[in-house]
Amino acid sequence: MGNQTSQSEFILLGFSDFTDSQIPVFLLIFLIYVPTLACNLLIISLVVSDSHLHTPMYFFLGNISLLDIFIASVSASHLYRSIFTGNRLILYSSCIAQVFFFSWFFITEAFLLAVMSYDRYVAICHPLHYTTMISVHLCVQLASSVWIISSLCSLVHTLCTLRLVFCGRTTIPGLLCELYQLFQLSCSDTYLNYFLLRFQAGVFGVSACAITFISYFHVFKTILRIRLKGGRWKAFSTCSSHLTVVSVFYVTSIFNYFYVSTTAFPASRLLSVGYAVFTPFLNPLIYSLRNRELKSALHRTLVKAGFISSWFMTREELQS
Question: pTM for the complete prediction?
């Protein structure tokens, strides 16, 4: 332990060792990041501006879109700089900031997806009581609580990470600073860090997963009781997009935190790109491709802005 030093910077490896692939990697991530920003900003603007989307489901969808913008930006910021300039160094303070924000956004998304699952449960299993059980006031309270509690959880991890000591200049073999990587690279005792991480994962992670699983268990039970096939498909279509996003979130999370730690590079870095960059790009596409309300809202917005003629509006849009 005699070689301990005060850490001022890390080497964030990223894809900088692939010297022949820097430009293709930069272009690929750039072509993912820009549409990610554009699509999520479009969803947020539609949810805010169109009164037809002022419902609990789209309120939470706006929160998810905001999260996707933050996650993609935190993940890609240093990666772009390192590819473009060749500078792999990241300041200790910047690394800790990445740990805080990425943990905060990850926990927030897990809970928001759980809340949206409960929203779908009430909408399908108790449609007559939906407006009384899911009010605007409750939605604001739930969203605010999720953001605040998640930030406090992330703050606890970040403060505990600050106590870690690193020996010499440390190379992080990944795309961004994450808790597990810093724990593994530290030359000090990490028992408390692992304990807190596993404790919070056990309490909050299992709780969010349980809410999601139980909600969809009852949703599927209700859908299967519907006798008309058309009625079944209509009910399932109201939650299919969210179910797909939930599946992508948990599958990529499992791969990122369990498989990545045991696999060799560059496979682990490609999986990290999928989790931190590609998923925020995929989410708005999943929500919008089969979402008639979002398409109608976009159509109405384009008509109001004068980009297209009202002659192209459907009968339902004219009536609304």
Answer: 0.84
